[in-house]
Design goal:
With 165 residues, this protein is an alpha/beta fold. The protein has one domain: Rossmann fold, CATH 3.40.50.620. It contains 6 helices and 5 strands, in the order E-H-E-H-E-H-E-H-E-H-H. A 5-stranded parallel beta sheet has the order 3-2-1-4-5, sandwiched between helices. Helix 1 links the parallel strand 1 and strand 2. The longest helix has 17 residues, at 98-114. It is globular, with a radius of gyration of 16 Å. The structure holds 4'-phosphopantetheine. 4'-phosphopantetheine binds next to strand 1 and helix 4.
């Protein structure tokens, strides 16, 4: 007997400080895999982000606007608790290089121990984005390098705005 289709909600958590073209590629690809994708920013007061939570949410909403099944949100506390509250069975993460693997493996095991019902699904970053990170984008920009191929245009505009204010 065919299984009843169940809608699959996935959460793509992260700092997104700021969102890069690598994140955007992952959002684009995973929005085709899941019924609903919630891109959610960790509200973490102990980190010193470049952009405030509301700026990051605005930037994400800007780029997510083209994907009808993608929602932008934020969370605090444990990711698995948040996923449960939102009815999500999947946590989505991207892997760029082997160096990401160890950190992701640790988080996956910890999250599975906390809630075995929630699966972490990984997508490999597209090779043209595998070297991009929010940290490097900020550094290159701060030192006067060209980042226009690395971040969405709206993010670049905001970074320029910040730099000139
Ligand atoms: O983009 P990042 O900063 O690598 O994302 C890390 C994130 C937000 C996925 C991770 O720090 C997280 O899930 N934090 C929430 C707190 C939590 O659940 N900690 C235990 C997970 S192992």
């Amino acid at each position: 007997m065919a299984e009843q289709p169940q809608s699959v909600v996935a959460i793509y958590p992260g700092s997104f400080d700021p969102i890069t073209n690598g994140h955007l590629d992952l959002i684009r690809r995973s929005s085709r895999l899941f019924d609903r994708l919630i891109v959610s920013i960790l509200r973490n007061d102990s980190k010193q982000p470049l952009f405030s939570l509301s700026d990051r949410m605005e930037m994400l909403r800007d780029v997510a606007a083209g994907f009808p099944n993608v929602e932008v949100d934020c969370f605090e506390g444990l990711l698995v608790h948040y996923a449960q509250r939102r009815g999500a069975r999947v946590v989505l993460r991207g892997i760029r290089a082997i160096s990401d693997y160890e950190y992701e493996l640790q988080m996956t095991h910890m999250n599975r121990r906390l809630n075995p019902e929630i699966e972490t699904v990984f997508l490999m970053a597209n090779d043209s984005y595998s070297f991009i990170s929010s940290r490097l984008v900020k550094e290159v920009f701060r030192l006067g390098g060209d980042i226009k191929e690395l971040v969405p245009a709206s993010v670049l505009a905001r970074m320029r705005e910040r730099a000139s204010s």
